[in-house]
Design a protein that fits this description.
alpha+beta; ten-stranded mixed sheet; nine-stranded mixed sheet; transmembrane helix
Length: 858
């Protein structure tokens, strides 16, 4: 049977090529998903600026809910008590302990020198308040490029010109010097304020460092972080580099260090968590890899099963002849399984080889778009490939076993009859399974309507898959049910005899055409469901955020934050009727403990002016100063607190602050925020400064010239918030794109296989008087009808996800998103179906009619 299986591959090349491509792509994507999972579990990020210190002591990088599960990376950089530096330095076995503090600092070039800097790869241009331009050197204008000179040893940096800085002087990374020499004056924007310094020296890192540094004297560095000392916020250092003495090993020294609670000592690649944000927890990547891998597995199972089923059904005549010539059901089953698994194993090997390239490409795309930290290292060891191989083989064995089982059990005479007139009948078990998935789709869609926006996004998405699975299982019945007499009459009126033949073929060959219907339906549901669900959620979240803030003029900064003096100047400008600083962060309520937000934090807004227009149910926002807070009424009821009570809020830098409730303020349902004074919240953010100024004006306002700031309308208000939402949206778009590519290939495969297998039928039609053109027209009608049915069914499945999410997030069943996405997808499906049908028809009708009738296959 193995020899017979090998010989049959020659005559069924198209069908086996379709299986080969489906398995190749599926196994490569699953091994890529396994690589993402391993990367999330390992979280390896080699340090750069802190690579010189064998041990980095810093605060805990992730928040662990006291009474909950999971963890989430802190949204702000936080550190440890400076007193710990001396304690560590006096620990036996420690040679030295060097503190590190990072703060926003950007070199500003003159406009004339900006072009030269840009030619040399120096940086980017940012708008200033008066519309002029200033050149900002550094990889990120808002990056934490400022440090005290003492921390240069943590990289290490080596002076290549000049000397260490004194007060009023700086040392620049050689990438920022642009020809400047020691003794020259340079302008540096420190914490949003432009200052002039003398260039003391130029230094070069001893290995690759992405973000160039600017080093200050200790006194200047301390002054730059003065904003953190507001409201009695204790001084902190971001990290402490610990160097072991001669003869002391790093693991031994780590055991000796006596660290307070919430402080950890990091070594090797774990040190990257102290330098790069977002590497503290594996949860996002684990969720991403799980959703991605699960979707690929489901899509591959549906597509491969449809392709294998189509291939087996097309061979019923030859399988029946084998049975009639004496082959046992077991031998037939073994032959079908063997030939399919031979092709699949070769494809699996190719897919695993492609898996590393695919994994690196997907990970690079994710890191390049901010979904995962760029510093994270992609790890893909042998386990992801082994897991992908096992899962692929299991899916293949189940699908081919199911298809081969019926082909082997069927009686020879019945098989020959069904080869001539295929029955459109599905078993009772399959019917029940399809009904269960259809009911699940309706149930998920209906329940999503009554959920919160966060839960709706998580629960409503699977409706596209359950709906697609229902169509895949019930495909033949769906095709016959939708081919009503009205549609048949329409085809007859429009295409005459060809229309009648197309309608008859669609009804008689409903099982075969279901193999083409499934990938089109699946791709349509996933593409439109994911895209419109994300655009709807994004629109709802942005509207909820911006609608609660009064502002017609927005000032934002590209250099780390709004400087202290700017707000005082702007709010007193003529024409300004209301003004407020704006700070955004995230945090948790711990005293009393809020069980509604455990690993998912509350949005925090810092304000100091009358720009929030949510309805005040109790108290007054005028009292939002000092150590105070305003809560949503629902949160207050849940926690059983009210105006005048004190609560403990864990802020984004791990600080637990005690604040008094001064107001209960409503927000958009499902998108409520906790309000804090801007000064309090800013002191606990990474930059230590407000990020924007909101103005309500009665006339055009001149805000003056402030380096690195941009003045605009309300569009600036949502720009930063919109970018934050883009992470979740981009994940969905990536999954949709990969699923679309997979199912597009599957559509091409199944259409080509189905058409090429009908060579004998086309030969008979041509012998009875039909021309090539008439047969081609019939084929176009058949596949266009199937494409239309697939689009309609996929759109219906997508609606069970999109419409409920729209109701849950926006209050009405009208999704948000560009209409060109829908129109573009329709065009894309047509571009897939029409050319493939034409090419396959030309190949199928290339032989002479008599040769086609006598062909051994098809």
């Amino acid at each position: 049977m193995i020899r017979l299986a090998l010989s049959s591959l020659r005559f069924r090349a198209a069908a086996f090529l379709a299986i080969f491509v489906a398995v190749l792509l599926g196994s490569s994507l699953m091994s890529a998903a396994g690589g993402l999972l391993e990367t999330g579990l390992r979280l390896s990020a080699a340090p750069q600026r802190l690579a010189g210190a064998p041990i980095i002591v810093t605060g805990r990088p992730a928040y662990h809910p006291p009474n909950g599960s999971g963890s989430v990376a802190y949204p702000e950089r936080h550190g440890v008590d400076p007193a710990l530096v001396a304690k560590l330095a006096n620990t036996p076995g420690v040679a030295k302990a060097i503190p590190d503090v990072s703060f926003p600092a950007v070199v500003a070039q003159d406009k004339d020198n900006g072009r030269k800097a840009e030619e040399e790869g120096g940086g980017k241009v940012a708008e200033v308040g008066n519309g002029a331009a200033a050149e900002l050197d550094g990889s990120d204008g808002a990056g934490l490029g400022g440090h005290a000179w003492g921390s240069a040893a943590l990289t290490p940096y080596k002076l290549i010109a000049g000397a260490a800085p004194a007060t009023g002087q700086v040392v620049l990374d050689n990438r920022l010097a642009h020809g400047a020499k020691p003794g020259d004056k340079v302008r540096v924007i420190v914490s949003g304020t432009a200052r002039e310094f003398v260039l003391a020296g130029v230094a070069s890192p001893q290995h690759e460092v992405d973000v160039p540094s600017i080093f200050f004297a200790a006194a200047d560095a301390a002054a730059a972080g003065a904003s953190r000392q507001a409201l009695s916020v204790p001084a902190r250092v971001d990290a402490i580099g610990v160097f072991p003495a001669a003869g002391t090993s790093v693991p031994e020294l780590v055991k000796r260090l006596e660290l307070p609670e919430g402080v950890s000592a990091l070594t090797a690649d774990d040190r990257g968590a102290a330098e790069f944000a977002g590497i503290a927890t594996s949860l996002p990547l684990i969720i991403l890899s799980g959703v991605f891998g699960g979707m690929v597995a489901v899509v591959m199972a549906l597509v491969v099963s449809a392709t294998i089923g189509l291939s087996v059904r097309q061979r019923r005549r030859e399988l029946a002849l084998l049975r009639a010539s004496g082959a046992t059901p077991g031998q037939v089953h073994k032959m079908v399984v063997a030939e399919t698994m031979l092709v699949a194993v070769v494809a699996l090997i190719g897919g695993l080889l492609l898996g590393r390239t695919m994994g690196r490409w997907i990970f690079g795309t994710l890191s390049g778009n901010g979904v995962v930290p760029a510093a994270l290292r992609f790890d893909q060891g042998p386990l992801p490939f082994a897991g992908a191989a096992v899962l692929t083989l299991v899916i293949l064995r189940l699908t081919v076993g199911f298809a081969a089982g019926r082909a082997a059990r069927i009686r020879p005479i019945q098989a020959l009859t069904e080869a001539a007139v295929p029955p459109v009948v599905i078993g009772r078990v399959r019917l029940i399974i399809g009904a269960v998935f259809a009911a699940a789709t309706v149930g998920v869609g209906m329940s999503t309507i009554f959920m919160s926006p966060t839960n709706a996004a998580a629960i409503g998405g699977p409706a596209v898959l359950t709906g697609s699975i229902a169509v895949a299982v019930l495909g033949p019945l769906v095709i016959r049910a939708m081919l009503t007499d009205r549609i048949t009459a329409f085809l007859e009126r429009r295409a005459g005899t060809n229309g009648v033949l197309a309608a008859i073929n669609l009804r008689v060959r409903a099982v075969q055409f279901a193999a083409i219907l499934v990938p089109i339906t699946l791709a349509t549901a996933i593409a439109l469901g994911n895209i419109y669900s994300q655009t709807t959620q994004q629109k709802a979240a942005v509207e909820a955020y911006t609608d609660n803030l009064i502002a017609d003029t927005v000032i934002t900064s590209a250099v780390g934050g709004i400087p202290a003096g700017m707000f005082d100047q702007v709010r007193s400008a003529p024409g300004v009727t209301a003004a407020s600083e704006l700070v955004r962060s995230k945090g948790w309520i711990e005293e009393p403990y809020d069980t509604t937000h455990t690993s998912d934090p509350w949005p925090l807004l810092g304000l100091n002016g009358p720009v929030y227009k949510g309805k005040v149910r109790a108290g007054s926002l005028d009292q939002l100063t000092g150590d105070t807070v305003a809560l949503p009424p629902g949160a207050a009821r849940h926690l059983k607190v009210g105006v005048g009570d004190q609560i403990g809020v864990r802020l984004g830098d791990d600080a637990l602050v005690k604040v008094r409730i001064v107001a209960l303020v409503e927000g958009t349902s499902g998108y409520e925020s906790i309000l804090l004074p801007s000064a309090l919240l800013a002191a606990h953010t990474t930059a230590g400064l407000p990020s924007q100024i909101l103005l309500k004006t009665s006339q055009p306002v001149d805000v003056g010239a402030w380096p690195g700031t941009t003045v605009g309308g309300r569009a600036l208000l949502s720009a930063e918030y919109d970018a934050g939402l883009g992470v979740d949206a981009w994940i969905a778009y990536l999954l949709a794109a990969i699923a679309i590519a997979y199912t597009a290939i599957a559509s091409i495969n199944t259409i080509a296989v189905a058409v090429l297998d009908r060579r004998r039928e086309f030969g008979l039609q041509r012998l009875t008087g039909s021309t090539r053109k008439q047969v081609s027209k019939m084929l176009y009608l058949e596949n266009l009808v199937i494409a239309a049915l697939g689009l309609v069914l996929g759109l219906v499945a997508a609606c069970f996800s999109v419409f409920p999410i729209a109701i849950a997030t926006r209050g009405w069943p009208i999704p948000s998103g560009p209409i060109w996405v829908l129109l573009g997808w329709v065009v894309l499906v047509l571009l897939l179906v029409v050319p493939v049908t034409g090419i396959a028809a030309r190949l199928a009708m290339r032989p002479k009619p008599m040769d086609a009738v006598n062909s051994p296959a098809g």
